[in-house]
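Researcher: I've got a protein sequence and the SMILES for zinc ion. Could you write out the 3D structure of the bound complex as structure tokens? I'd like something to compare against our soaking experiments later this week.
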Amino acid sequence: MPKKGLLERLAERPVVGDGSQCMTLEKRGYCRAGPWTPEAVLLYPDAVRQLLREYLRAGADVIQTPCFYSSDGKLERTNASSFTAEAINEAACKMAREVANEGDAIVCGSLSPVQAYVNSEGTEATRKEFERQLDVFLKYDVDFMLAEFFGHVEEIELCIDVMKTAKKPIAATLRIGPLGDKNGVSVEECAIRMAKAGADLVGINCLYDFDTCLKTLKRMKTALDKEGLKPYLMCQPLGWRCPEVENEFDGYLTLPEAPLCLEPRTATRVEVHKFARAAYELGTRYIGGCCGMEPHHIRAIAQELAPERKKNPPVNDMCPPLGEMLNLSAFSQIQEKSSKDYWYSVVPGSGRPFNPALSKPVSN
Ligand SMILES: [Zn+2]
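Model: Sure. Here is the predicted complex with zinc ion in place.
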């Protein structure tokens, strides 16, 4: 039986996305911090395949092709790889399909901001760079298209327009917070413009944490409802806590700790449970993760939304819902923690007695 497409799934129940790719591969030793280009798909295919499998097992309905930042412009600018974007993207498409077919997942081809727009080379040059990214996704027949991590609604509108030629569902997420886009377009107008440009899903990804994303999503939802627009709402937030960057255009990138000392800010799985519930309740129907969202975070989304999705993630065979098997521990103090209520009441310590809770963001 053919798999259901993205829009069919969304019409029935919430969809769980996958999580961080380059940032997680860097921690594991398979991506260069700085360029963040994904040549690992050719250099270390087993490592990338394993990460994608972990997302599938965690309950992701979607496997994104592991080729973020793989456009010729980006590869040339960072001069970090001897591979062409085409070679990386082809390998990424094949691998994503192979892993998705190990379960019931579908494949998403993602387009990201291009150098031609940054360099103000004009509409035609920008469209051409998107078209080159799109070609390989068409060749390998991905199930839907995603434009993600855009800082300007003007650029994502162009990208959406190019993606329409693929005649597949289109998702569009900006990397914006409450300030809106980098040209001063408000959150509300950004959401409306993405929907009117033809995106079936609109929302946000990266740069901000759960609480900031929830505020932005709420404003998007209100604005879309007011206009009578009905795209699905989507969110792929950071896996770190960073409330102090809410009013910084570059979000977590303005933290002194970014990108190499962010570990103390890692969200707990309980925080992900709470976020997934809150995001769903305000109307978000596609919930995944961006930088810092690891497989166990995606598992928390899938386990939290299991009642609405009417299915448990495959990982439940080894990792049942929050605390369920802790009563089997050999230690009595752990046995007593075998309930969701206990875990929802924990206030985690950082283990660093002299550290502040927040840092001072460094803006450009
Ligand atoms: Zn990200």
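Model: The chain has 16 helices and eight strands. The longest helix spans residues 210-227.
Researcher: Great, I'll pass this along to the crystallography team.
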